[in-house]
Amino acid sequence: MHIRITLKILGLLLMLFSFTLVPPMLVSIGYGDQTHGAFLDALLITFITGFIVWLPFIRYRQSLRTRDGFVVVVLFWSVLAFFGSLPLYLFEQGASQWQFVDAVFESFSGLTTTGGTVISHIDDLPPAILYYRQQLQWIGGMGIVVLAIAILPMLGVGGMQLFRAETPGPEKDSKLTPRITETAKQLWYIYLALTIICALLYWLAGMTLFDAICHSFSTIAIGGFSTHDASIGYFDSVAIEAIAVIFMLLASINFALHFYAWHKHTIKHYCHDEELRFFFKVIVAVILISFVVLMLSNSGQPLENLRHSIFEVVSIMTTAGFATDGFSNWPGALPFIVFTTAFIGGCAGSTGGGMKAVRVLIIVKQGLRELQRLIHPSAVIQIKLGHHAIPSRITEAVWGFFSVYVFVFLVLFIALMATGLDQLTAYSAVGATLNNLGPGLGDIALHYGDLNPAAKWILCLSMLLGRLEIFTLLVLFIPMFWRA
Fold first, then answer.
1. CA-to-CA distance for 286 and 266, rounded, in angstroms?
2. CA 484 → CA 1, 66, 162, 398, 471, distances in Å?
3. pLDDT > 50? residue 312
4. pLDDT confidence of 264, banded at 50, 70, 90?
5. What is the pTM of this model?
């Protein structure tokens, strides 16, 4: 374990993050909302802290190992969330509204693209704070670490180990281009292009330019934060909802597919990707179920029910968490059915949360294989994705992830109940945060502001576990990890 190179990188990343506080500070000055002081103070605190951590090791040169990469990623996301809470805490401290735990919760929720909020009157917040919340999600969407590894090589620090620790999905050793720096840059080009197009379409559909930019950040990041309490429902626009659905789906697709389409100028490969086909089959099936149940349970218009079914199901399964109709108020078991899709989440390599569709697909395929083996015990049956057999190493890793996921879910669920939450609220709170979804059921259907401080701290851990896909964080607690 190379402590000095780890601290050097952490200091560099903190200094880099401090400059992301400049845009909201400019927004504050432009709108005259008097919050620029909080952002300036937070910028100085973050930059000076990063500088102090980095300075003692300025001349230290050492290659970064994979284990060091895991430590940097976990430390950075944990520390970043606390420093990211400074503008919120400094602003709210003057207004005597938020506690420190609320500011940290909001920061964790933003950076992990969870989208759960402790705020009950979002429309009353100053524009700079509203913008900052959205920007946190946009930064967290692709990952500040991926952005940093495109820059750190210029400072003499390699990035492949960070990329392997940060990139989601079962096959983390793959890279899209021979040079990791080029990979990070290409991913950000695609991410930025999608954001700009989404913002322009929102603006043309009727949003103000401010709302269009803010919502494009959280849409492409699959975050779910909004500048209004009513979320996307505030605009009551079919066109805006359609744009949101399209870009939530695009952002929940493996960015490797977008990368291939970007360079090869073709979209045929989307149709041949089995994970993507599985992802869309589940979405379509749940939309149809929701539509039928809504039609049978109320007298609403068919088109209105279809509109709400499409938007809510896409929003929940992609783990965006935007709302138009409040799925938690839907009849019968429908809220649980829709909420369960968040456990599947987006595709591997996307900004979506959840266990990832490819993992669920592999689990389903292995379950079917075991049923076939009951009939033909001696048969050699391979699990395939498309025309490619899945190595046993990948299958074992998927089952290992699923086992740990279930165990972590149960531990967090019990811990929340121990703080006094009822079963429904505790279950949905863990599901919503561990899958980086945001909205839940029970007492958190609207916001998390009424939860006790202990529950909020537990949920911060849950959000971090979900963002780092559990293993990246838990591996630090294995004694073997720290042995030379």
1. 29
2. 7, 13, 20, 28, 20
3. yes
4. confident
5. 0.90
